[in-house]
Amino acid sequence: MNENRPPAPQLSQRQQAKSEVAGFTALADLPKCSVIISHFNYSHLVENALRSVIAQDHGSFECIVIDDFSAEDHRRQLERIIRKLDDPRFTLIMQPRNCGQTQSVFDALSHCTTDFVAMLDPDDIYSPSFLSGMLAAHLNRVQIAALATCDMGLYRVGGSRLSQVFSRFSRDSEGRGEAQNHADMLERHGYSEYFPPWTPGWLWCATSSLMFRRDVLELIRPSKPVTYHQVDAYCAQGGHMFGGTLFVNRVLSYRGLHGSNLMHTSRLFSAYQQRHERGIANIAPQAKLDALNAFFANDGHRLFQPARLLKILQAQLDTDSLADIVETLAQKAKRKT
User: Fold this and answer.
1) If both were cysteines, with which of 34, 157, 239, 295 could 146 make a disulfide (CB 3.0 to 4.6 Å apart)?
2) Three-state SS for 100?
3) What is the rounded CA–CA span in Å between residue 39 and residue 37?
């Protein structure tokens, strides 16, 4: 120990006050956030998505682009696009094999450094206020939630905007006479309605409408390989079950119609037409169970009061699934004794 070392300099009262103000200002600003784009053979579409991230009015972000082992020509084109954009906020990761969208998103999550994580499909785009709007919703003064979702519009890739509505939220809000209350909540607190974890059903639009608290994504990080592509089915349902959802009734992102994704057709003429391609398996029930199993494998249940967790499970699961979960917990407890 060097006893002759000079004492550390002391801050004057003015310097200390200035430092405290600087810290407060940093906390008052919207925080840095992450955007994950999982790419597979969409190099002809992804540049629009990337440019919509660059165009955000909240510029403090990192964007992790992960290629899920696309065909060689798509991989090379994606690399060219990233180089052309020349933005240090973008990181490109190349998967060594095809893992599926859900697994790729969680692989990309390991490279994120922030507390809030959004996801953008490579054929969709953000409005310029997506990140700021979703962060404002998360940082409201009323309710903490695992994820926030906005309404989406629809646009024809290479063409024009087609719709300013994707979800049923506005229609149902008007029908129940709650539209003014929801508008007031949005104006005052940044979100329109909070759905608690025991609210069942599909409450979201699609992947590109979502922003999560990173902690809930880590809580449902898959404990075994998941190879399906609908990451929203896994993450939205899984996150919602353990923290609820904030709905932001603003169009802050747009779904691209182009005839080669899961949409049934690139034509849009009715709220009642089939949205998804016929023959596409509904993986939502299995994704919910997979997220739930990951939650238990990651010891998430230790973070909840048993009565509250039981309320969630009873609302979200059918009798057989609930019985399976109870059996899984019993076996897990037996192995630890």
Assistant:
1) 239
2) coil
3) 6
pTM of this prediction? 0.88
pLDDT tens digit sequence for 164-196: 999 999 999 999 999 999 999 999 999 999 999
CA distance 157 to 187: 31
> Residue 56: which pLDDT band, with cuts at 50, 70 and 90?
very high
- 268 φ, ψ (degrees, to nearest 5): -135, 120
Please tell me the distance from the alpha carbon of residue 286 to that of residue 283, in angstroms, as a whole number.
Answer: 5
Q: Which amino acid is at 324?
A: D
Q: Kindly give the residue spans of alpha helices, DSSP state H, lying in the chain.
A: 13-28, 46-54, 72-85, 101-109, 130-138, 169-175, 179-189, 214-219, 231-243, 284-297, 306-316, 319-336
Hey, what's the torsion of the CAs at 258, 86, 207, 184, to 10 degrees? -110
- Degrees to nearest 5, angle at CA 136 with 23 and 308: 100
CB 118 within 8 A of CB 34: yes
pLDDT per residue as tens digits for the range 130-148: 999 999 999 999 999 999 9
Which of the following CATH numbers is that of domain 30-336: 2.60.40.10, 3.30.565.10, 3.90.550.10, 3.40.50.150? 3.90.550.10
